[in-house]
Amino acid sequence: MMKIGITGATGQLGQKVIEKLTKETxxxxxxxxxxxxxxxxxxxxxxxxxxxxxxxNLASALEGIxxxxxxxxxxxxxxxxxxxxxINAAKQAAVKYIAxxxxxxxxxxxxxxxxxxxxxxxMIKASGIPFTFLRHGWYTENYTASIxxxxxxxxxxxxxxxxxxxxxxxxxxxxxVVKVLTTDAHINKTYELAGDEAYTLYDFAAELSKQTxxxxxxVNLPVAEYEQALVxxxxxxxxxxFLAGSHVSTEKGDLFENGHQLSELIGxxxxxxxxxxxxxxxxxx
Length: 285
Ligand SMILES: NC(=O)c1ccc[n+]([C@@H]2O[C@H](COP(=O)([O-])OP(=O)(O)OC[C@H]3O[C@@H](n4cnc5c(N)ncnc54)[C@H](OP(=O)(O)O)[C@@H]3O)[C@@H](O)[C@H]2O)c1
Hints:
The chain is built from 12 helices and 9 strands. By secondary structure, it is α/β, with parallel strands linked by helices. Bound molecules: NADP nicotinamide-adenine-dinucleotide phosphate (NAP).
């Protein structure tokens, strides 16, 4: 049987991937590759220590792994080097396949995160290991996670204008990952993955208002003002700058994608905004 290794298995996407993967293949075929093994005891699969910052330990941890899912790390600015450590180790351990969670149109986007994703894709190609690039659009949770805050301030602030967002939930993206890991025909392919439905932040606020019975407007601010508001709300300067920048990219259309490749891959429509908001609201009711 093919052994599948999953990095970032204790992260939000990784946990969903493990949960879905154990329904498609026996648990003994799955290895969670995690930076903190004590966080992974509940996953129900073999756990191996795997810290991207410890290159000397990575190749031995990949022993016997046929397929590797590299979930991109979350330390912005350090990821190209971290991912390079993983790819070198995969080569050394004769891993036969790498699936990588990249960013939507990472070769042609204004989203500031794209450099490290593109660099990682190039390193994987250069390694000669067969691959699939899962270029993920925005997670719907990027917006639903702040619903409690939005309800408190009774307004949704942003700088995305009428930019359309084709987001999908982590669960939708995890289903796509599992499909690619457990079925053939994805070798050396690059998928642009996003939700079926596209909405603006005006639409988001209108749906939230409808479901809560409250009048919650979307307030579109000039980008400098939005960035300042984020800093005032307590966000570190660099994060505020990144988030504000992502709204500018949204207005430019960089989060819009109409190819429906994710629903095609998973064989069902992606989760609607209506359902994602309802689910988020149910969590604090
Ligand atoms: N498209 C989007 O909207 C969007 C949104 C958020 C994130 N992302 C990207 O997608 C990835 C998965 O998302 P997520 O929501 O699951 O993020 P997450 O919960 O932050 O998960 C990131 C995972 O990376 C692991 N990690 C970080 N540094 C590591 C290191 N040095 N060595 C080994 N593992 C390390 C973390 O380990 P621990 O569990 O030990 O912390 C965690 O499991 C993120 O890392 C990010 O690249 C995309």
